[in-house]
Amino acid sequence: MLGFLVGVGGGLLEIGVARDRRVVVRKSCLKSLALVPWASSVGEASLTRSRVTAAPRPHEVQDREAITFSAQPPFAGAGPKRVLVWFHEDLRVDDNEALASAAKRASVLGGALLPAFVVEDKCSDLVKQAASTLKAELQGLGSDLVSRSGSVADALVELFNTSKMDAIYYNHAVTGEGIQLERKVLGKLRELGIEAEGFWSNTLFRPDAFEKVRPTEVFKAVFDGSVAAPQERPTSLPRLPEGIDAGLSVVTNRTNQASIARKLMGEFNKSSEALHLSPSGDFAFRVKPYLDAGILSPKILFHHIVREVGGPRGYTVHELGWRSYSCLALHSCSTPTKVAV
């Protein structure tokens, strides 16, 4: 695949040609763009990520028109460069594909990364404390967590528009309540022509790992140990865009819930875990809130148990399998892989 830059009138015009001869054009500083007449506007949705594609937004036309003729960019500059990461059931830096993918996109000339969290009235103390821990970890990597309160959809849209973002990245929810919120937010984004892309860091598998999501196939993959390694933790992140107010601290009591979750991982009884005895069931019950809030990654927990027990077996591994199956089954019925706006 080919890609090159052309300087025009003090600005940069990026042109890429995919293997199937589709042309991708992106303009940064010019006021108009002559469309390539033979370029196809048909895009393919990624099987490994859910995607909502969007029509051009008014601020794009005024400030940095970007026209992409392929959902899978043939070179680094073809996709979104300014990405808002919506944290909701993935309040962690470790094993977070949405964050890692957005950081990679933003780490180019003209890129920007905006991590965001919306505090709802019904947020538990655990979730608020986890968000504060996440904020501190993001600050340590050079970024920050921008917090807002009120309606999740409205807050994300306001941040997206005022910061002139290109897309919103997020990890798919696992809990029933989280999935309902996700549907509501995606519906709002689709109405407004905002592109959003979902990732699968909250499950052991992505949906394309199976021809059809069935319990037998999921559990075979679990007990075969066919679980991918966790996403690597970023070593650094781009700074927040200029002029962004990070908002107030999510909570004043800054209990480090990530440290508590890591300590909890080391407390399960290896012998009872392998034999499915009661203490193991108690452990699975204790870690559930940390999985629900996304403080603890299921892949990290899975691989920790495999190392400790000597293989993919035990009560908690079984529960992680059911958790992943339920999530994939629910999303396969409700989450589109591509929605054209």
Explain what the structure shows.
By secondary structure, this protein is α/β, with parallel strands linked by helices. The protein is built from eleven helices and eleven strands. The chain has a seven-stranded mixed beta sheet, sandwiched between helices. Helix 4 packs across helix 5. The longest helix has 20 residues. It is globular, with a radius of gyration of 21 Å. The two termini are 28 Å apart.
Topology:
Elements: E1 2-8, E2 11-17, E3 23-27, E4 50-52, H1 58-63, E5 66-67, E6 82-87, H2 97-106, E7 112-119, H3 125-140, E8 146-149, H4 152-162, E9 167-171, H5 176-192, E10 196-199, H6 215-223, H7 257-265, H8 270-275, H9 278-292, H10 298-309, H11 315-334, E11 338-339
Parallel strand pairs: 4-11, 6-7, 6-9, 7-8, 9-10
Antiparallel strand pairs: 1-2, 2-3, 3-5, 4-10
Helix pairs in contact: 4-5, 6-11, 7-9
List the keywords.
341 residues, alpha/beta, seven-stranded mixed β-sheet, four-stranded antiparallel β-sheet, 11 strands, 38% helix, 16% strand, disordered N terminus
The ordered string of helix (H) and strand (E) elements is EEEEHEEHEHEHEHEHHHHHHE
Give the CA-based shape. Answer: globular
Rg computed from alpha carbons, rounded to a whole number of angstroms: 21 Å
DSSP strand (E) fraction?
Answer: 15-25%
Mean pLDDT: 77
Query: Termini, distance in Å?
Result: 28 Å
Task: Give the structural class.
Answer: alpha/beta
Helix content estimate: 25-40%
Low-confidence region ranges = 1-9, 17-21, 28-49, 55-77, 336-341
- How many distinct beta strands? 11
- Per DSSP, the total helix count is 11
Strand neighbour order, sheet with most strands: 8-7-6-9-10-4-11
Largest sheet: 7 strands, mixed
